[in-house]
């Protein structure tokens, strides 16, 4: 429980740093969705976060299924 609370609080505290829009590189303005998808600087961390979320959800479902057996 402590690890979950620590992870959640650190993720919430770092949200302003992650979501801060900026101009100056790429083809799109810093506040457009296309900027985050087409820029490797943003697309790679986004893909890693999505992959981590999928892994955590699938592990949680697997763990619940294993407890029910």
Outline the structure in words.
The longest helix has 29 residues, at 40-68. The chain is built from three helices and no strands. It has a domain at 32-69. It has 69 residues and is mainly α. The protein has helices at residues 2-18, 33-38, 40-68.
> Would you count the extended β strands for me?
0
Uncertain regions spanning at least 5 consecutive residues: none
Overall shape: elongated
Strand content: under 5%
User: What is the average of the pLDDT values?
Assistant: 79
Return the structural class. mainly alpha
Q: Over all CA atoms, what is the radius of gyration?
A: 16 Å
Oligomer: single chain
Report the end-to-end length measured between terminal Cα atoms: 23 Å
Q: Quick one: biggest sheet?
A: none
What is the element string, with H for helices and E for strands?
A: HHH
Give the proportion of residues in helices: over 70%
Total helical segments: 3
Short overview:
The protein contains three helices and no strands.
Summary keywords:
3 helices, 75% helix, 69 residues, single chain
Which SSEs are present, and which pair or pack?
Layout lengths: L1 H17 L14 H6 L1 H29 L1
